[in-house]
User: What shape does this take?
Amino acid sequence: MKPNGVTHGNPELTLNHQQSALKIENLVAGYEQRVLLRNLFLCVPGPAFVAIVGHNGCGKTTLFRTLTGQLPYQGTISVQGRDLRAVRRPAAEGLLAYLPQRSSVGFSITVRELVVMGRYRHQRLLSAYGPADYTLAEAALVRVGAAHLVRRDFTLLSGGEQQLVWLAQLSLQDSPLCLLDEPTQQLDVYYRRRIFRLMRDWVETEGKTVLCITHDLDNLPDMPGYLLNLSSPVPQLQPLSRATVAAARAWLEDEASLVPTSIPPA
Assistant: This one.
């Protein structure tokens, strides 16, 4: 890959925490003609919420694709203390759960049947889902406030309703690390607020670590956790607050932030 991105990181700026949910050291990742993440250092304590912001093309989704094993990388990544290189399929092994930016279903299926698929890694090959699995699926729908949708055709739901269903399915994967790529994209104010409350609940009551790529800065000041701006010259975790969100907004709205910063590789 030819370097064509921002140098990201400094080991001295890494958050020091004994029990890290995610630890990244000197990460280099991207595509054949363009490196989007260079020398990224990151240590995320668990449980925690991390809002990942930045311009389009700064490497947010690239980071998630790297964590899920879809892209090769240089450097070291560990999830819950496990070296990611030693894990063939992180999601299938329950190490993490991933909700991509665009999820769709091209056939008719009830919400109940779609949500229960979150139990796939607990099933034996070719075995059917049992009563206990469906009970868990229905409970997951209750937790996200979508119990009334259980018998509905998923393809006929609104965008906000569909996103709640995907989040219910994600919760059934019972993974300690959840990666959500713009979960509130194109949703109205009600559903955006509801999904942020749900992510907060996952951290505070279920002990999950949630990494959320988002452009929805308005809902971040009230979230406990951290902010990671991948468009900044040296991305690092900052406590979420009105001040840090305002600073990130000011930087992202400044035309100067669109110009890649040349920092020599470490």
In short: The mean pLDDT is 86. The two ends are 17 Å apart (CA to CA).
